[in-house]
From TrEMBL, chain B:
Membrane topology of the entry: Multi-pass membrane protein
Family label: Belongs to the CPA3 antiporters (TC 2.A.63) subunit C family.
Localization per record: Cell membrane
Main localisation: membrane
Segments passing through the bilayer: 6-30, 37-58, 70-91
Keyword Membrane part of the UniProt annotation: yes
Protein name from the UniProt record: Na+/H+ antiporter subunit C
Keyword check for Transmembrane helix: yes
UniProt keyword annotations, A-Z: Cell membrane, Membrane, Transmembrane, Transmembrane helix
Length: 931, 107
């Protein structure tokens, strides 16, 4: 059998109700139940194998790089939970069919419910930690949708938000724990992790793991002090409460405790935290439940209390306690689901859930009353019902405790008090609702519910009785299988019998029943006592907390994002300063061991020019034309530096880019004010910016110095060794560009093309003011295209094109190549624009440059794709040598086609930018709005 | 030599950063240009300084590291495209918003 189907069928089933809700309520419910029912059958089929001790697994690779596999397994514990999830889930589907009113969108409800079911199945079946977490989060999200199902109610929205916040935050903590576990063990595979208990317990991060892990489990299972979300989740429709807060959602937390019990438990840290939190939750929940007037509120706090009981059992230092915990998981799921359903029926048929109004319902709905009373008795732990058995086991285990040293006698005492409180609130549930006089001001006269609404309750109550009377027959094997999965070793002897003779636990039970009855009998005094304290509403406190966080976040956000680009740049620079300066502080000596080159006079002069040019650019930046001339000096020196330090290709590129840049700036300056107001910032800001700029400059300069004076370890030996033999060229820089790292180059010319096209779109329809004179008021020169310039540039054009062709062709072996040749061609053409004007050029070269860009990109891409024809990877190059008469021996390489693509793209992009901007200065400019 | 090179890179970076922080678009684009010079020189420096060692096989004894050169070559061209884009954006902002300040009129 394929395990994948068990969670997959319900997942597909989420679509069923959405498609079928038009066919009526019964049909929708039946169709919705179909796929989960098949899943349940699959699980049931697997029972013999699991009882025989096998664990079924299924696995497929998902993202192996991070250790994430799609992996499921079915052992005893997963089997128990799958049965609960699917079994009670099906009963809830039937129940909801009658509970929901005509106004509720049944398709949506069922769809959420089945999604939640899938998530729960995923959690319990996962065999991979990361996948488990994925489904864990899915339960949080789908439960949010379910709790907020009546989204028109404020309570529902707030309750859902609270549940999502708490369980979501816990989920993050859990993720931290799971990742730490995975890293400590070296695998995210659950089987491997479960076999590595000693590694985990001995690791240094064990306390961190425990805290994060328990945060995840406790928030989900509503343990103190995170319990407050659960009562507010009662704003959900009752079928949701019956499902989420009996068998599933809140049980996910205790499932986690059970699942990781073999590897994380067995240390003092675990026993102290888990048992104390469990005990506190048990008492607090039980005490608060007594005072709730809302039927569902009582049940909610009782759920908290019982979850505390299960947690306490996992925290007690004995194997039998863990078995009892598993047993109580079953028992609580069964009786609590039936009680929630009964509460829903009462609410549905009488219109109220307030126990001050609901009295004497025995007369109106005796059948439902009987069912509810049996379930409530089980909750109280009355003999012959299932709740009695697991509570008895708890009492027995508390008697053998040493966790608290000489104070350990407190544990059985407090457990008995918890038991007494449970008896008291169960008595209240029975007596206040079904007896205690007549109903008061009920919205409608109560009556029995529709026949089939009662069926789920009947089934569950029969189970209560069955487990309570013949426990070994009813759940013995299941409990054995699940408990051995929890303990991960053979089980100790234990007996599930109802009668163990007169002993300590029985005495504690008797005390609890007597104490509970006394408490309930004296409830007036208790209520009066409790009435002295102001009601603590977690919702209000929580909302306050949320609002406080939102306000603080808004303050920070306003400070960071004040819609000032200047501020963003400032923050960015400060941040980068921090990350670059921090490592430098750790560096002891800026100077490395590499010997420095000697300095000569020419270098000093060039450096002096560069520094003066830089400073002048900054100082004269308000006189824009002057600044432009200064920055062009800097650019020129940079080009010379490249040439001097053995990078002829870079020098050529820088030189041609420099020309294009300056032309571009000049064109832009035509439209922009030619001067900036001298005082563009406050003196304070100038000082601030100067300090930051100096700091950044100092850090980068030091970094550069530290790098330059350290020996070089480069991967370039490979490129130099293989350039000729592998790439067929002696200019290693060019071979790297078009061959070794050709894919990078393809990306880079794509960026160039995108920038060009972006500029083209920005220029389209731009409404610019065309000045008639310069800033001094002088009119532009009348002779726009001087004859001398026209003549010279026209005669230079063929020469320039020839040079660019030469540079292109020799590029593979000597300095040059597509980038440089493209820039030279582009500048030669721009020269013609400048000399003759746009109109003159338009007649001779009416060519859409974006097509040139596209052609270049396509050419480069196809030259890469071509290698696929020869079964080679993308962009593998081919080259060979030929000889022709007169020309002699020459080389042909497919890389040249690629370089040709680069060449066209560069020409296209440069001309697209410059020619289009230039066109704006003339009468040829496109008018806004197209033509 | 290395000391002078590093000082030059530092000063260009400082000048670029100062201009980038100004309130007028033209100064910011000038600053970006200065910064890209500095960044290119910085990246180039990761291959260390070598004289008379162009990475042309058979032309010299010791070759300069060709890898940073190849990276910087494309960086120069893309730097040009970026400068152009920023400049045109500044023009567009002036056309649409009516001023040439980074944050509009309120400095």
């Amino acid at each position: 059998m394929n395990l994948l189907w068990i969670p997959l069928l319900p997942l597909l089933g989420t679509l069923v109700p959405l498609l079928s809700y038009r066919f009526g309520r019964t049909a929708t419910a039946a169709l919705t139940a179909l796929l989960p029912a098949i899943s349940l059958i699959l699980v049931v089929q697997a029972i013999p194998a699991v009882f025989a001790g096998e664990a079924l697994t299924w696995q497929a690779s998902w993202i192996p790089q991070i250790g994430l596999n799609l992996a499921f397994h079915l052992d005893g514990l997963a089997l128990l939970f799958s049965l609960l999830i699917l079994g009670i889930g099906l009963l809830v589907i039937l129940y909801a069919r009658y509970y929901l009113s005509d106004n509720d969108h049944m398709g949506r409800f069922y769809s959420y419910l089945i999604l939640f079911m899938t998530a729960m199945l995923g959690v319990v079946l996962s065999n991979n930690l990361l996948q488990l977490w994925f489904f864990w989060e899915l339960t949080s999200i789908s439960s949010f949708l379910l709790i907020s199902f009546w989204s028109h109610k404020t309570d529902a929205r707030k309750g859902a938000r609270m549940a999502l916040t708490i369980t979501g935050a816990g989920g993050l903590a859990l993720l931290g724990a799971l990742i730490l576990i995975g890293q400590t063990v070296g695998s995210y595979d659950l089987r491997t992790v479960l076999a590595s208990g000693d590694v985990l317990r001995e690791s240094a991060v064990y306390p961190v793991i425990i805290v994060l892990f328990l945060l995840g489990a406790f928030t989900k299972s509503a343990q103190f002090p995170f319990h407050f979300w659960l009562p507010h989740a009662m704003a959900a429709p009752t079928p949701v409460s019956a499902y989420l807060h009996s068998a599933t959602m809140v049980k996910a937390g205790v499932f986690l405790l059970a699942r990781f019990y073999p590897v994380l438990a067995d240390t003092d840290l675990w026993f102290v935290i888990v048992s104390m939190v469990g005990l506190a939750t048990l008492l607090l929940g039980a005490y608060t439940a007594l005072f709730k007037h809302d039927l569902k509120g009582l049940l909610a706090y009782s759920t908290i209390s019982h979850l505390g009981l299960i947690t306490l059992l996992f925290g007690l230092d004995t194997e039998l306690a863990a078995i009892a915990a598993v047993f109580h998981i079953i028992n609580h799921a069964v009786f609590k689901a039936s009680l929630f359903m009964a509460a829903g029926i009462i609410d549905h048929e009488s219109g109220s859930r307030d126990m001050r109004q609901l009295n004497g319902l025995w007369k109106y709905m005796p059948y439902t009353a009987t069912l509810a009373m049996v379930a409530a008795a089980s909750m109280a732990g009355v003999p012959l019902l299932n709740g009695f058995l697991s509570k008895e086991m708890l009492f027995a285990e508390t008697l053998h405790q040493a966790t608290l040293g000489s104070l350990s006698w407190l544990i059985p005492l407090l457990a008995t008090i918890g038991g007494a409180l449970a008896v008291a609130y169960s008595l209240r549930f029975i007596h206040d609702v079904f007896f205690n006089g007549e109903p008061i001001n009920l919205p409608r006269t109560p009556h029995e519910p529709p026949r089939y609404m009662r069926v789920p309750v009947e089934i569950l109550v029969v189970l209560c009785l069955l487990v309570g009377i013949v426990p070994d027959f009813a759940v013995g094997d299941l409990l054995n299988a699940a408990a051995s999965a929890v303990l991960h070793k053979p089980l100790p002897d234990f007996s599930l019998a109802v009668w163990h003779g007169f002993n300590g636990p029985l005495l504690m039970s008797l005390l609890a029943v007597a104490g509970g009855a006394t408490l309930y009998y004296n409830r007036r005094h208790l209520f009066a006592f409790q009435g002295q304290f102001a009601d603590f509403d977690a919702k209000i406190e929580f909302e306050k907390g949320i609002q406080w966080t939102t306000e603080k976040a808004a303050v920070i956000h306003r400070w960071l994002d004040n819609a000032s680009l200047q501020r963003y740049v400032f923050l960015l620079i400060i941040f980068s300063l921090f990350v670059t300066a921090w490592p430098l502080l750790q560096l002891e000596n800026a100077q490395g061991s590499r010997p420095q080159l000697p300095v000569n006079g020419i270098v000093l002069v060039a450096a002096g020019l560069l520094i003066i040019g830089t400073l002048a650019t900054v100082i004269f930046s308000h006189l824009r034309l002057l600044a432009l001339i200064m920055i062009s000096i800097v650019g020129l020196i940079v080009a010379i530096a490249f040439a001097y330090f053995s990078a002829p290709d870079l020098a050529l590129t820088q030189l041609s880019v420099e020309v294009a840049t300056i032309i571009l700036f000049l064109l832009a300056l035509y439209f922009l004010p030619q001067k900036t107001p001298l005082r563009d910032s406050s003196p304070r800001r100038i000082v601030r910016d100067l300090s930051i700029a100096s700091l950044v400059g100092a850090v980068i300069g030091t970094l550069c110095y530290a790098m330059l004076t350290r020996p070089l370890h480069s991967i370039s030996e490979f490129f130099i060794a293989n350039s000729k033999t592998g790439g067929g060229g002696t200019n290693v820089v060019n071979v790297i560009l078009v061959d070794f790292r050709g894919f990078d180059t393809l990306g880079e010319i794509t960026v160039l093309a995108i920038a060009g096209l972006g500029i083209y779109k920005l220029l389209a329809g731009m409404r610019l003011y065309v000045p008639a004179a310069d800033s001094e008021g002088r009119p532009w020169a009348k002779d726009k295209n001087p004859m001398m310039l026209a003549l010279i540039s026209q005669s230079l054009l063929p020469l320039a094109l020839l040079v660019s062709a030469y540079i292109f062709l020799r590029g593979h072996n000597m300095p040059g190549g597509g980038f440089i040749a493209g820039l030279i061609t582009a500048i030669a053409l721009i020269q013609q624009y400048i000399a003759h004007g746009v109109a003159w050029m338009k007649i001779r070269l009416n060519f859409p440059y974006h097509w040139l860009i596209a052609a270049g990109l396509l050419l480069a891409t196809f030259s890469g794709l071509g290698s696929w024809l020869f079964d080679q990877p993308f962009l593998t190059t081919w080259f060979d040598y030929f000889s022709l008469p007169w020309i002699g021996k020459f080389e042909l390489a497919s890389a040249m086609v690629f370089d040709l693509g680069v060449y066209f793209t560069v020409i296209g992009a440069t001309l697209l930018i410059l020619a289009n901007l230039g066109q704006l200065t003339t009468s040829e400019r496109p008018l806004p709005g197209g033509k | 030599m290395e000391t002078i090179y590093a000082i030059c890179v530092g000063i260009m970076t400082a000048g670029g950063v100062f201009l980038v922080l100004r309130g007028y678009t033209f100064a910011v684009v000038l600053g970006l240009t200065l910064l890209s010079y500095a960044v290119n020189l910085f990246l180039f420096a990761s291959g260390r300084l070598v004289i008379n060692g162009a990475a042309i096989l058979g032309e010299s004894e010791v070759y300069a590291d060709p890898l940073p050169q190849a990276l910087v070559l494309t960086a120069i061209v893309i730097g040009f495209a970026m400068t152009a884009f920023a400049l045109i954006l500044a023009l567009r902002a002036r056309a649409d918003l009516g001023n040439d300040q980074v944050d509009g009129d309120n400095d």
